[in-house]
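Let us work through a complete example step by step.
Step 1: write down the sequence.
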Amino acid sequence: MSNGSTTVDLAALAVSIIAAIIAAASAITSCTQAKDAHLQLQRQFEAHLSPAINTQASKHRVGIGVKNAGPGVAHIKTVTYYVDGKRTDDISQELEKLGMDTSRDEGETLGPQDYIGPGTTTWLIDYRAKGQEDELRVGNLILDHVRAAVEYCDANDKCERLCSEEKKDACP
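Step 2: predict the structure and record it as tokens.
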């Protein structure tokens, strides 16, 4: 009789071990799925700004903008301008020194209380050239001399710094 009960005990033990393994695998799968769902939810609030250089020849407009290519809102922290690699506190004055008519600049001034929504482009410098020659001249001035750095955070408090020029040290 003890031999039959040992067989039943071993079978019950085997079933218990298999059940424990299945439960552990199920718990691991559930945790992995929960983590993936959490990451997916976080991605909904991410923002990704990218530089935009405006050269709309048909409209005689040139400028520097930032586009939010992410699905979330970008909260602006700071915008810093550089002319010939040097930080400037007065971009209008520097643009005038470069020979631009700043009354033709319709760009927006962004600060710590501003946001850029998903799919939106905000133009920091949005110059309305007088004609094709002025557009070419101003476009070259901007491309050769002017940079803008934008520091921003998304809804997850992930913060980044974007420079309008991708070259290393373009926005020190």
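Step 3: interpret the result. The radius of gyration is 29 Å.
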